[in-house]
Structures are given as structure tokens and as C-alpha cells.
Design a protein that fits this description.
Strand content: 5-15%
Number of strands: 12
Bound molecules: glyoxylic acid
Distance between the termini: 24 Å
Helix content: 25-40%
CATH topology of the largest domain: Rossmann fold
């Protein structure tokens, strides 16, 4: 039987499904493998179900000379050197579609938390500081009637726009290419250039892939274009925002607040974030609802089965070999 490795704990049904077809080594104890351990575990694998935290590069591929498919259990795949895989004829797949609504829900949650100071309020209460009612306490920003600027307007961005319509928000978006007019009309979304989006939005939300072209597309200059009472939400990837520049903007209050699920160099994050009240921080859990994580794990497994067991085309290829 062909050998498959699953690098992080997934749900039992996924392992059971893979075991019908493969000799499966799975990390159901969810150990955080050292790099050396990981490289040795994949040495005989023909298929590897990776997590977004596994770096798949030439070193990894050298350590897994039999590998034919990397099935990443995430929609983003910036952890994978797709060109290196392509050169070696290794298929790469991801999990698009199954997490759109879940991530869109979470994006709205971060936005509301940051605008309405929910995390700050909870910290205040838990630390025993709440002694009296103050009429002007913890004043935040309105969501209804505000302008939402989405940088990135793929499936998740569109799902966010749909929700924003329900909140009575005005929706702007910026992408390299416009979506069709019918979709713009359906989502009441207007395509604008990046400067206009930054200048007019009350909430700037990032939902685009991280590539060398999107590295630090929000830095000091862009933050200075944002309104002083605006909020930045990043549910895409660390590295899209220059975290040091964002910390400075939050500290100087040149923007109102931020809601972040992703960081440069995560799971490390710049410790200065922890000192700021006007930022909501979460540990990259945008797609972490149980049904969605179940669906993501099965999507990755189905790609392994299609390619390795059934000799079929991958269901969700991100490169073509
Ligand atoms: C989560 O961040 C994903 O890319 O699926």
C-alpha cells in the first residue's frame, strides 16, 4: 500500500477514509514535530497531508523523494514552494470553497470586536476595574452605515461583502481585475483603486493571498492614508501588513484599532502588540469552526485519494504538472 503522512491531528473520519486506501502515518497525538523529525517522517511518503504551518521547500522535497502530492489543509499555500514542487512533478492541492462562509463570519467578528472594543471591555471587566457606569465609557465606532474596503475580492471577500450588506455598510473593493458587473450589482460593491479605498474606508479588510507581490502592501504610507477613526482587519496572511508600521499607527492612534488573526513570523508575534489595548488578537483561527475544519481535512484527503489511489486528476490543484 502507498504510504501517506498526515502531519497534524485531523478528525478520525479523515484518517479512517485514508486508511481504506493507504498505509497512513498520522500525527494524531498532535506533536509539534521538530524540522528534523518532520523530514524523517516524510522520507517514504508518496502523499503528504500538510498543515499551513509546514514549510514545503526544496529541503522538504529532498527529504521526501517518493512524494507525488502535497495536499495542504488550507486554502492558502504560501507555506509551499509551488515552483519547486512543479519542477519535481509534485502535485499541490488546497481546500478552496469549504471555508469561505466560516472565514467570512470570523472576519465580521474581528471587525465588530475591534470597532466596539469587545476585547478591551472584557479585559477591563475581568481585571476588576469596572466600578461604575460611565456614559462615555469605551466609545467605539458604528458598523452600520460605515464604509468597508475589501482588499481582495475572491470567494471569501464576496462572502464578507454579502454580510456587510446586511449591516447596511457601503462596500468598496480593490483587486487587480474587477469582478463582473452582475456580481458587483448583486453585492452592492464598487471597485476602486487602493488609495481611494484607504482614504474612504472606515474598515479596511485584507483578504488576499500572500505572495512576493503582496508583501507589506499595507505599510507606513498606506496606514497614513487611512482615516484616524478607521480599523484595519487582517484575516489573510502575516507579511501582507508591515507589523512594525501597524504597531506605530496603533500606538500613535493614527488609526482607531485593528483586528488581527495573522502575523509576520507567526506563531511568534511582535510582543509590542500585547501592550496595546486597541488591537484584537487571535491565533489564526479564521477557519476554525468544527464543521469547516472537518470539511477541510476531508477535502485534502480526497485529493490524496484521487491522485494516488485512483490515478485521477487532483480535485483542487494549485499547480499543473
Ligand atoms: C487558513 O488560513 C487557510 O488558508 O485555509
Amino acid at each position: 500500500m502507498r504510504k501517506v503522512v498526515v502531519t497534524r491531528e485531523v478528525f478520525k473520519e479523515t484518517i479512517d477514509f485514508l486508511r481504506i486506501h493507504f498505509d497512513v502515518t498520522s500525527n494524531q497525538d498532535d506533536r509539534s514535530y521538530s524540522r528534523d523529525e518532520l523530514l524523517s517522517i516524510v522520507s517514504e511518503a508518496e502523499g503528504i497531508q500538510t498543515a499551513g504551518s509546514d514549510q514545503v521547500n526544496d529541503e522538504f522535497l529532498d527529504a521526501a523523494p517518493q512524494v507525488k502530492i502535497i495536499a495542504n489543509t488550507a486554502v492558502g499555500y504560501n507555506n509551499i514552494d509551488v515552483q519547486a514542487c512543479l519542477r519535481r512533478g509534485v502535485v499541490v492541492t488546497n481546500t478552496p470553497g469549504v471555508l469561505d462562509e466560516c472565514v467570512a463570519d470570523y472576519a465580521l467578528g474581528l471587525m465588530i470586536s475591534a470597532c466596539r472594543r469587545i476585547g478591551e471591555g472584557e479585559r477591563y471587566l475581568r481585571s476588576g476595574q469596572w466600578k461604575a457606569f460611565y456614559f462615555k465609557q469605551m466609545l467605539g465606532l458604528d458598523i452600520h452605515g460605515a464604509t468597508l474596503g475589501l482588499i481582495g475580492f475572491g470567494r471569501i471577500g464576496q462572502a464578507i461583502a454579502r454580510r456587510a450588506n446586511g449591516f447596511g455598510m457601503r462596500v468598496l473593493y480593490h483587486t487587480r481585475s474587477r469582478v463582473c458587473e452582475a456580481l458587483e450589482n448583486d453585492l452592492h460593491a464598487t471597485h476602486v483603486d487602493k488609495s481611494q479605498l484607504l482614504e474612504e474606508s472606515d474598515v479596511v479588510m485584507l483578504i488576499l493571498p500572500y505572495t512576493k507581490d503582496t508583501h507589506h502592501i499595507i505599510g507606513e504610507r498606506e496606514l497614513s492614508q487611512m482615516k484616524s477613526r478607521s480599523v484595519l482587519v487582517n484575516i489573510a496572511r502575516g507579511g501582507i501588513v508591515d507589523d512594525a508600521a501597524l504597531i506605530k499607527a496603533l500606538r500613535d492612534k493614527t488609526i482607531f484599532a485593528a483586528g488581527l488573526d495573522v502575523y509576520e513570523g507567526e506563531p511568534q508575534l511582535n510582543p509590542e502588540f500585547l501592550e496595546l489595548e486597541n488591537v484584537v488578537l487571535s491565533p489564526h483561527i479564521g477557519s476554525a469552526s468544527e464543521p469547516t475544519r472537518r470539511a477541510m481535512a476531508m477535502t485534502a484527503a480526497k485529493n490524496l485519494v484521487a491522485v494516488l489511489a485512483n490515478n485521477e486528476a487532483p480535485i483542487n490543484p494549485v499547480n499543473s504538472t
